């Protein structure tokens, strides 16, 4: 689907939401919120979908910068920030990464793909590095989402292959890949487990 249409639909959704919110109708369904911006962010978060089909529209530098900043400023154990991120923009490298895997062919159409890694040279980084990198990359994904950029987590890779292709040094562990790009699809929400099955208040 054309990304301009998808963007247009988003704007229409946000406008309708703003009108409902300002007229008080939304308050019937949601408690009052401090600001409309917050509400629309929540709306984006709740409607997030994995995006695997990207348009060829380039991502402005400022938008990409904000996405990466969301990762750089994320929480990490003891503020150790044991992470490194490789931002793969080169078409040859994206194509190479896409062609060698089964569930990541869409990397070649992504605007860029981030490879999240962590160092393993101290106890805290070994224990929490993976969690830290996941938090940072999920922050990037949400920062992308609110700016209209889609993303997809990619777990379909071999550490050795990624490390060799991208020159990841010894002792650095690859945690995950995430592709980014303006959506060229608008998939329906995937089924999610009901709240009562997964939330345990106070005790299991
Ligand atoms: C750790 C992880 C690894 C994933 N790996 C892949 C992958 O290799 N290829 C892919 O197409 N999607 C991958 N996904 C995306 C999931 O398939 C997707 O999140 C899931 O189907 C739920 O859809 P939703 O994100 O739209 O709710 C991965 C997601 C996570 C969290």
CATH superfamily placement of the largest domain: NADH Oxidase
Helix/strand order = HHHEHEHEHEH
Number of strands: 4
- Ranges where pLDDT stays below 50 over 5 or more residues in a row are 24-34
Topology-level CATH name of the largest domain? NADH Oxidase
DSSP strand content: 5-15%
Structure annotation, total helices: 7
The largest β sheet comes out as:
4 strands, antiparallel
Search tags:
204 residues, alpha+beta, 2 domains, four-stranded antiparallel β-sheet, 4 strands, binds flavin mononucleotide
Summarize the structure.
The chain is α+β, with helices and mostly antiparallel strands and 204 residues long. The chain has helices at residues 3-22, 36-46, 61-72, 91-99, 123-146, 159-166, 195-198, and strands spanning 83-88, 112-119, 150-154, 172-181. It has a 4-stranded antiparallel sheet, with helices on both faces.
Describe the structure.
By secondary structure, this protein is of the alpha+beta class. It has 2 domains: 3-47, no CATH class; 61-181, NADH Oxidase (3-Layer(aba) Sandwich). 43% of the residues lie in helices and 14% in strands. The chain has helices at 3-22, 36-46, 61-72, 91-99, 123-146, 159-166, 195-198; strands spanning 83-88, 112-119, 150-154, 172-181. The protein has a 4-stranded antiparallel β-sheet with strand order 1-2-4-3, with helices on both faces. The radius of gyration is 19 Å and the shape is globular. Bound molecules: flavin mononucleotide. Residues 49-50, 52, 103-104, 152-156, 190 line the site of flavin mononucleotide. Flavin mononucleotide (FMN) binds at residues 49-50, 52, 103-104, 152-156, 190.
């Amino acid at each position: 689907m054309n990304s301009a249409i998808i963007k247009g639909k988003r704007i229409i959704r946000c406008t309708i939401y703003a009108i409902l919110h300002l007229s008080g109708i939304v308050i019937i369904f949601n408690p009052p919120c401090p600001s409309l911006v917050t509400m629309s962010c929540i709306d984006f978060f709740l409607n997030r979908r994995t995006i695997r089909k990207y348009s060829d529209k380039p991502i402005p530098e400022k938008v990409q910068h904000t996405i990466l900043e969301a990762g750089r400023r994320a929480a990490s154990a003891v503020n150790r920030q044991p992470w490194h991120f490789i931002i793969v923009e080169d078409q040859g490298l994206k194509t190479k990464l896409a062609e060698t895997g089964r569930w990541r062919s869409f990397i070649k159409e992504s605007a860029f793909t981030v490879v999240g890694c962590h160092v393993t040279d101290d106890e805290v980084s070994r224990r929490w590095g993976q969690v830290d990198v996941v938090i940072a990359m999920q922050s990037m994904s949400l920062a992308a989402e609110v700016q209209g950029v889609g993303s997809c987590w990619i777990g379909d890779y071999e550490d050795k292959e990624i490390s060799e292709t991208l020159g990841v040094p010894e002792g650095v562990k690859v945690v995950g890949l995430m592709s980014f790009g303006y959506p060229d699809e608008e998939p329906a929400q995937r089924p999610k487990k009901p709240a009562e099955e997964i939330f345990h208040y106070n005790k299991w």
